[in-house]
Amino acid sequence: MEWFSLLLLLLCPLMMIFCMKGHLGGHKHSHRNDSHQNHDSHLPNGVLSKVKNLEMENEKLRKEINELTTLVKKQF
User: pLDDT tier at 76 (50, 70, 90 boundaries)?
Assistant: First the structure.
């Protein structure tokens, strides 16, 4: 059983190398300051506006939660 533990221990870094190579292999990003280029061109039409709307709704809900939390704390 000790050999199995050793094999498992040695297999982890090897799997990580293959996973990282596979992850980075298909993407050719430059690592300059502008590496976070506008990726919106990869999104289907209308998705960007939906994401923006969801972000605004999320912010409104966060504010409402904070207000309600404050209200509850004041009551108790």
Answer: confident
